[in-house]
Amino acid sequence: MLEHDGYLVAKGCDRSDHPHAPAHPANTVVQSLSPWTWTKSSNSTDVSYHATNAYYSIQDKLRREHPGILLEVCNDGGRMVDFGSAAHADYFSIADAYDPLSNRRAFFDASHVFPPAMLETYVEKWRAPRLENFLYMLRSGMMGWLTVMQDTSAWTPEQHAAAKSEFEFTKGNCVL
Q1: Which residues contact residue 40 at a Cβ distance below 8 angstroms, ignoring those fewer than 6 apart?
Q2: DSSP alpha helices (H): ranges in the chain?
Q3: Assessment of whether the complete model's pTM goes beyond 0.70
Q4: pLDDT tens track for 15-31
Q5: How far apart are CA 54 and CA 129, in angstroms?
Q6: What is the pLDDT of residues 92-119, one digit of tens each?
């Protein structure tokens, strides 16, 4: 049970002598298996609805109190990228797997409805025996909001030069 704004949220409870909102009668199903009886229904204390509104309220308060803050949404490994969260934050972390192929899949899924600048991909250390592998890794993260999550001092001089060239090319061709 949870308490929310003075209401007791008790899933499956249809008793009128408890301090919670009553179950909606149109969609109430009572089931029993002796000696237990339970009610399946929803009511105005729906936990998901209130949790979502509380989450949005926190985001809005943070933005009011810290106008320059950037708010990231990291929902269920990028599987819960939605318009409600987009309205309250600046960008999404779109994947929990940071390899190049996972980044590309997540980006192409989310980029059908959101702009690339809202879609963050982490570039984790990945086996790159040749420069082509390194560029594939880097470009897979550069399709959206790039976060490099590796020790760049471990890159070879050739990789540093290639990364610098890729970043300059991308910056010169970005449309914001």
Answers
A1: 12, 28, 29, 30, 31
A2: 47-65, 83-88, 100-110, 131-141, 157-173
A3: no
A4: 666 656 666 667 677 77
A5: 48
A6: 988 888 889 989 998 998 898 899 889 9
